[in-house]
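Need residues for this backbone.
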């Protein structure tokens, strides 16, 4: 018994030496330095953007040159980076009546990125030891850079290049950038409808009337195309024949792209609807949000998760590919929310992208800020012009 107590005491002492307050504080500070540019970019100030970039570089150097307890510091830094970048993912639990699970999901996000960081440290420090200590910082720097290419469940929002956005150095990201403007006016609509109200039956008529008034205003303003946010019409629009007819009539005067859901053959779709010259076309989302619109796990795990969190509902349906619409001979690639931050959308470097989003799921948070940084990154890299219409984000033309 005495031996067991001594062994336990020795284990606790050793564990506390690895996870001491000093090590936790050091890792916390490094993670802040690697993340602060996101928070600075809220203010869209070039001085703060440069300061954020310098902080990021300093944070990366701290991590690469750490000597004592390096593995634990990489683990904890990754944990805090995951939390500082992606804490907001858990906020959507509020709308499934699982708000009490938010701290646990945030902790889980931190654990995932902590494990990614320490795995890279272990692998690259192994090679560094073989090459000699003189090369260790360079090898670890390479490992740190490559971390951003690991996408848990396809989620690709960890991107170190974003630290350059808003600074004079962002141009190093730019590809061939000869972006042009369409030869007609595009009216982008933004809204501020809380997620808790968006699908309320008692508020739908009010929202629909307001949307139709905004379309009329765009017609009056001489726009050729009006773009409304994702889920602007919070209904299965393909089944709402009266609303479809109204939008078809208005499309005799203006082309309309709007977000709404669809229900077909027992499956829900997150869709964009395009109306022009009295005709309608539905464009279903191609890349779904992991754990939001689809469960990226084997079927035997997918079913119980859908039963527990989504009332037994199945995953959303999805299109086989992205789609284009055409207005006055100009082609626009259409994307819905998460798709706008996926490299697949820009594979053929489209000239123009129409993006509709609903960021109300994550209010208040830095989700929309991080989304805007990613959109700027892809616009620069691919020479694309992104027309972004969103709920709880500013309407923007990003190039």
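Answer:
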């Amino acid at each position: 018994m005495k031996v067991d107590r001594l062994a336990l005491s020795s284990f606790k002492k050793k564990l506390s030496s690895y996870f001491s307050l000093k090590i936790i504080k050091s890792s916390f500070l490094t993670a802040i330095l690697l993340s602060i540019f996101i928070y600075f970019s809220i203010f869209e100030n070039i001085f703060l953007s440069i300061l954020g970039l310098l902080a990021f570089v300093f944070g990366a150097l701290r991590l690469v040159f750490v000597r004592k307890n390096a593995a634990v510091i990489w683990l904890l830094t990754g944990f805090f980076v995951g939390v500082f970048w992606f804490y907001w993912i858990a906020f959507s639990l509020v709308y499934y009546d699982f708000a009490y699970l938010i701290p646990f999901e945030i902790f889980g996000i931190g654990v995932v990125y902590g494990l990614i960081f320490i795995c890279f440290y272990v692998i690259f420090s192994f090679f560094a030891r073989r090459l000699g200590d003189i090369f260790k910082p360079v090898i670890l720097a390479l490992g740190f850079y490559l971390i951003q290419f690991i996408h848990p469940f396809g989620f690709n929002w960890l991107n170190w290049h974003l630290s350059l956005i808003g600074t004079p150095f962002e141009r190093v990201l730019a590809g061939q950038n000869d972006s042009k403007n369409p030869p007609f006016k595009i009216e982008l609509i933004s809204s501020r409808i809380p997620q808790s109200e968006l699908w309320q039956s008692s508020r739908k008529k009010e929202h629909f009337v307001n949307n139709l008034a905004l379309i009329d205003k765009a017609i009056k303003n001489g726009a050729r195309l009006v773009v409304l946010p994702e889920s602007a019409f919070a209904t299965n629009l393909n089944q709402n024949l009266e609303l479809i007819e109204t939008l078809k009539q208005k499309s005799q005067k203006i082309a309309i792209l709007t977000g709404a859901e669809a229900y077909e053959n027992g499956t829900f779709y997150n869709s964009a609807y395009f109306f022009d010259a009295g005709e309608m076309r539905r464009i279903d989302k191609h890349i779904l949000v992991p754990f939001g619109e689809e469960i990226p796990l084997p079927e035997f795990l997918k079913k119980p998760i859908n039963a527990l969190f989504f009332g037994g509902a199945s995953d959303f349906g999805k299109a086989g590919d992205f789609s284009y619409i055409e207005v006055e001979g100009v082609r626009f690639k259409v994307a819905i929310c998460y798709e706008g931050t996926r490299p697949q959308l820009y594979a053929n470097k489209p000239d123009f992208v129409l993006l509709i989003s609903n960021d109300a799921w994550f209010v208040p948070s830095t989700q929309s800020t991080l989304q805007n940084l990613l959109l700027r990154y892809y616009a620069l890299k691919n020479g694309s012009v992104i027309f972004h219409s969103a709920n709880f984000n500013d309407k923007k033309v990003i190039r």
